[in-house]
């Protein structure tokens, strides 16, 4: 029976191509506008590491001065979400959580093995060996450095695949040397393509959350020992001593820190350990604000930093408002179409079709309309995303449709057409057969 209704629906749509075309186009345009903006929001708000995001945690400890401090008033996220070198070094040594890592952004000049390239600026991060297993960073060649390399400030480096290919082509460069800042570093690993969206591991370096990967990775202690300057955010709440050592000894916050835990219970224990640490530091005259510590998992962290801007959310709501307007127009067109078929409905009712049968037939016809509108809407969505991707480098990365959004397009199209068809279908099944037969 349902296959028969599908056939009737398809024939009905073909019977009046102009009206059908208007309904399909109206529905498709609304779907395309909604899906295009929803795709951007979907990528920006997606979980980059879903199976362990609840166990990767960022600590927030407010070491600011009492000047102009209002208890309970939130600080600027980018100011309060990093920490001092002193705190990072202490937390690495204390061993809280199952694992931990500190990192900061660096930018250095590299003497390219290809002489024609000369000196090339590269950017990356100084971090600990724990960074790679914590964030499940894949390797193409070699491996990360060891904890012993961390301790000894070894001059080793891991390259991204793009950086490796820039300097060495498709050859395996592990064991070769690169000269950074007039010092020789041994290449011990090359990453496989790895660019999580958003770039959650290092959101405080002033970079985009979606564009640009790290080009090099060097040990944290190596960068500190060799006084490699921070290339990210730096916020100081008081005077600092001269030079790089002055920054290390100061209350300047510039280092990103991550913990890894194994369970929700350990998350709670970690919070208690952080509170105990800041309490001890207060005895030394630090953390005068007495502000509570924060501990954010990956998704909470991205929400805290407003990775998804408010204008993206607003654009999505506006696009769905436009879809609602398109549905109102579709309702009007369906009412006109179904009203013109009152005589047909009267004959069917006279031949024994129930109101439920009429309702099913016309509702299935709207489903057919939704499927056709979904196909056209999908094509318009791809066209819209292509146009969006040419606006900025950020949008070029995120303006693409995955399988989830592909499925959502058709579900949204069918749901929208069914919703638009409820009133016209209900009106159609209420037609009185006797009146229609008398008028014939």
From TrEMBL:
Location(s), subcellular: Cell membrane
InterPro entries for this protein: ABC3_permease_C, MacB_PCD, Macrolide_Exporter_MacB
Superkingdom of source: Bacteria
Predominant cellular place of this UniProt entry's protein: membrane
A single MF term (Gene Ontology): transmembrane transporter activity
Ranges that cross the membrane: 21-44, 317-340, 361-383, 403-423
GO cellular component: plasma membrane
Residue span, MacB-like periplasmic core domain: 20-276
Domain spans labelled ABC3 transporter permease C-terminal: 319-433
Membrane topology classification: Multi-pass membrane protein
Record carries keyword Transmembrane helix: yes
Keywords on record: Cell membrane, Membrane, Transmembrane, Transmembrane helix
Pfam family name, one: FtsX
Name by which UniProt lists this protein: MacB-like periplasmic core domain
The organism of origin for this protein: Solimicrobium silvestre
């Amino acid at each position: 029976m349902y296959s028969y209704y599908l056939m009737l629906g398809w024939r009905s749509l073909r019977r009046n191509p102009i009206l059908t075309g208007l309904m399909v186009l109206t529905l498709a345009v609304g779907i395309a506008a909604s899906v295009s903006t929803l795709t951007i929001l979907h990528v920006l708000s997606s979980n980059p590491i879903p199976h362990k995001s609840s166990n990767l945690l960022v600590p927030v400890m407010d070491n600011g001065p009492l000047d102009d401090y209002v208890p309970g008033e939130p600080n600027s996220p980018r100011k309060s979400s990093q920490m001092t070198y002193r705190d990072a070094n202490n937390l690495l040594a204390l061993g809280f959580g199952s694992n931990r890592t500190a990192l900061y952004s660096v930018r250095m000049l590299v003497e390219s093995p290809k002489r024609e390239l000369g000196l090339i600026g590269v950017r990356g991060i100084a971090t600990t060996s724990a960074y790679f297993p914590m964030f499940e960073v894949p390797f193409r060649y070699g491996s990360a450095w060891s904890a012993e390399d961390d301790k000894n400030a070894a001059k080793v480096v891991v390259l991204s695949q793009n950086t490796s290919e820039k300097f060495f082509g498709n050859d395996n460069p592990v064991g070769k040397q690169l000269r950074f800042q007039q010092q020789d570093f041994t290449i011990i690993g090359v990453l496989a393509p790895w660019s999580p969206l958003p770039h959650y591991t290092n959101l405080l370096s002033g970079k985009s959350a979606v564009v640009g990967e790290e080009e090099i990775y060097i040990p944290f202690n190596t960068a500190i020992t060799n006084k490699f300057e921070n290339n990210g955010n730096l916020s100081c709440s008081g005077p600092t001593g001269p030079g790089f050592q002055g920054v290390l000894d100061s209350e300047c916050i510039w280092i990103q820190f991550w913990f890894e835990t194994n369970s929700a219970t350990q998350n709670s224990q970690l919070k208690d350990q952080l509170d105990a640490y800041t309490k001890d530091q207060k005895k030394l005259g630090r953390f005068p604000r007495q502000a509570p510590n924060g501990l954010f998992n990956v998704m909470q962290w991205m929400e805290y930093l407003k990775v998804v801007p408010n204008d993206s959310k607003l654009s999505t709501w506006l696009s769905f408002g436009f879809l609602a307007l398109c549905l109102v127009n579709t309702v009007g067109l369906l009412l006109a179409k179904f009203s013109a078929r009152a005589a047909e409905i009267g004959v069917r009712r006279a031949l024994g079709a129930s109101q439920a049968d009429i309702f099913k037939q016309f509702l299935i016809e709207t489903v057919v309309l939704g499927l056709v509108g979904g196909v056209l809407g999908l094509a318009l969505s791809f066209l819209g995303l292509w146009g969006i991707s040419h606006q900025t480098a950020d949008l070029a990365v995120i303006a693409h449709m995955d399988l989830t959004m592909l499925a959502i397009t058709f579900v949204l199209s069918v749901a929208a057409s069914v919703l638009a068809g409820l009133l016209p279908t209900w009106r159609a099944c209420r037609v009185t057969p006797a009146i229609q037969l008398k008028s014939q």
